[in-house]
Specification:
The protein is α/β, with parallel strands linked by helices. The protein has four domains: 79 residues, DnaA, N-terminal domain (GMP Synthetase, Chain A, domain 3); 157 residues, P-loop containing nucleotide triphosphate hydrolases (Rossmann fold), CATH 3.40.50; 63 residues, Helicase, Ruva Protein, domain 3, CATH 1.10.8; 90 residues, DnaA protein, C-terminal DNA-binding domain (Chromosomal Replication Initiator Protein Dnaa, Chain: A, Orthogonal Bundle), CATH 1.10.1750.10. It has a five-stranded parallel β-sheet with strand order 5-6-7-4-8, with helices on both faces. Strands 1-2-3 form a three-stranded mixed β-sheet. It starts with a helix and ends with a helix.
Length: 427
């Protein structure tokens, strides 16, 4: 009997090494390494710390584990550690030694309310969806909000956080990655899982930061599935639509798009004018600036701060002449053709280098042709100048691209609406 026990102990080490060789190190460290390995009556018994872990491993990794067990002539059993003991029905860790201290959460009273978000006709739909999800459980969870930098999508997420009556958890993508990694390092992964699920509304900003982080994406997707199954609200915020997010596999993109996807339009001239007036800028100056500056909420906020600070320090109101002199460094760089192309790259989910390169993927070609068509309608640039902005394309290429877009607009109403919105922003 002693010889058999020694053989089984050696086999456990070999089995662990065999499993580790069949999956990436992050997945093995997160899910498999914390399990208890035992060999009982020709059966490999893997004991998890709680039911969630056991169910997740059974659904995702059972094929790999079964294959390894079979190679060693063993059956496989995945169970919960101490499953015969009385279990609690509340969400808690089966391992009482695990504790997790979340990152500090901002006071709701200090956050934005929906009245602080200046809406336009283009954003009426997404604003209504945000108010609806803040009022209680909805049928369209997850709500996926996307838009260009400075359009106000993160502000809407903060408004939902402030207005929601139930318990909310709001994280940025960077915080989620950092907290998940820290919980792995501190062996508090199950406490972190329970913390994220113990809420009525979960909000994740800057989802694109999770790109190409395989273990974090797996945890994120399982979190979305579990929250939705429990009838909880989920709000996801990113800089591009789910299908245009790079670094995510098709399964993740499909899951993020399974609820309601709504885009946030950049602030139009009227919204920009109201934002500047709310900051204390005179109406005539605000109107002048609104028609000159780019549609970027961050830029507008910076301009408002600069004008307000000048008034406080110099003791005089800012007129049009002072505004143009004070903001000359900002105004001369806004709405240039190159800035238009770069901001369109962000909105269409492609990189500027890729647009100017020689790539011929379908999505990239479509984005490049769309930019050419928008520049043709929104600017007075010649076709040769447009070609130079998107990778030094020749005149014939630009003519062909614009003709293709015009042809597709006849049958693709979504594309036609997208181009009309871009033209309105950059004209």
């Amino acid at each position: 009997m002693q010889a058999v026990a020694i053989k089984h102990t050696a086999n456990v080490t070999e089995i662990k090494n065999a499993i580790a060789g069949k999956m990436d190190s992050a997945t093995f460290t997160s899910w498999i390494a914390p399990l208890n390995f035992e060999i009982v009556n020709d059966c490999l018994v893997l004991s998890a710390q709680n039911r969630f872990s056991a169910d997740f491993i059974s659904s995702i990794h059972s094929a790999t584990l079964n294959a390894v067990a079979t190679d060693f002539g063993l059956n496989l059993q995945i169970c919960v550690r101490g499953a015969t003991q009385k279990q609690s029905n509340t969400i808690a860790n089966d391992n009482a030694r695990q504790t997790y201290t979340p990152a500090p959460v901002a006071d709701k009273n200090a956050l934005e309310c929906f009245d602080s978000f200046i809406s336009s006709d283009e954003n009426a739909f997404v604003l209504s969806a945000c108010k609806k999800i803040a009022s209680g459980a909805v049928s369209f969870s997850p709500l996926f909000i996307y838009g260009n930098a400075g359009c106000g999508k993160s502000m809407l997420a903060k408004c939902i956080n402030a207005a929601s009556m139930g318990k909310t958890i709001m994280m940025s993508g960077g915080q989620f990655v950092a907290e998940f990694t820290r919980s792995l390092h501190n062996r508090t992964i199950f406490a972190f899982k329970d913390f994220c699920r113990d809420c009525d509304t979960f909000i994740l900003d800057d989802v694109q930061i999770l790109a190409d982080k395989r273990a974090t994406c797996e945890e994120f997707m399982q979190l979305v599935i579990d929250l939705r199954s429990a009838g909880k609200n989920i709000v996801l915020v990113a800089n591009a639509a789910p299908g245009n997010l790079k670094g995510f596999d098709r399964r993740a993109q499909s899951l993020m798009a399974s609820g309601l996807v709504a885009d946030v339009a950049c602030p139009n001239a009227n919204v920009r004018r109201v934002m500047l007036m709310r900051a204390g800028i005179a109406a005539d100056v605000a109107t002048e600036l609104a028609n000159t500056i780019a549609a970027d909420g961050h830029l507008i906020s910076g301009i408002a701060t600069k004008v307000r600070t000048y008034t406080e320090l110099m003791g005089e109101k800012v007129n049009k002449e002072i505004a143009h002199r004070l903001l000359s460094d900002t105004l001369q760089n806004t709405k240039t053709p190159l800035v238009m192309v770069r901001t369109m790259c962000d909105k269409l989910g492609v990189s500027y280098d890729a647009v100017c390169g020689r790539g011929r993927s379908r999505g990239l070609v479509m984005a490049r042709q769309t930019m050419m068509a928008v520049l043709k309608e929104a600017t007075n640039l010649s076709l040769s100048e447009i070609g130079q902005l998107v990778g030094d394309r020749d005149h014939a290429t630009v003519v062909y691209a614009i003709a293709q877009i015009e042809k597709m607009k006849q049958t693709d109403l979504v594309l036609a609406a997208q181009i009309a919105q871009l033209v309105a922003e950059y004209k």
